[in-house]
Amino acid sequence: MEFGPPIIAVALTCLAGGGTFFTLANRATRRTHAKFGRIEVESALQCMLDDKQCHDAFDLFLAWPIDDPYLDSIRKRCREIVRTSAPAKPGEDISGDGKEQIRAILRDLRGHA
């Protein structure tokens, strides 16, 4: 079977469309996360500390910068904690000490006016 110019054009158009879709989706996600406030950050930290929840909110929190410098500093600290706090047991995302550090950050955030 021979692929002619129309098939190649359709394939390239599909690839370009897919690339455009993901570029626009990433841009929208970046804008949404940039506007994160205290409530969203608290929720992401609590999500990480709750062993019964999926940590997707926390993972997204770590991945995208926040416009508010204080909240972004919390994001950066948490990213460093996750990077340096290897899990103690298989199946864990972070060590107990790492969770304690995140709990302390959450307490500070809740106490910060």
Topology (elements, then pairings):
Elements: H1 5-34, H2 38-49, H3 56-63, H4 69-84, H5 96-111
Helix pairs in contact: 2-3, 2-5, 4-5
In short:
Helix content is 73%, strand content 0%.
Please, how many helices?
A: 5
Roughly how many Å apart are the termini?
69 Å
**Annotation, overall tally of beta strands:** 0
What fraction of residues sit in β-strands? under 5%
Q: Please tell me what the overall shape is.
A: elongated
Question: What is the averaged pLDDT score?
Answer: 81
- Secondary-structure element order, as H and E? HHHHH
- Any low-confidence stretches, pLDDT <50, length ≥5? none
**Backbone CA Rg:** 20 Å
Largest sheet: none
Q: Considering DSSP H and I runs of 4 or more, what fraction of the residues is helical?
A: over 70%
- Estimated structural class: mainly alpha
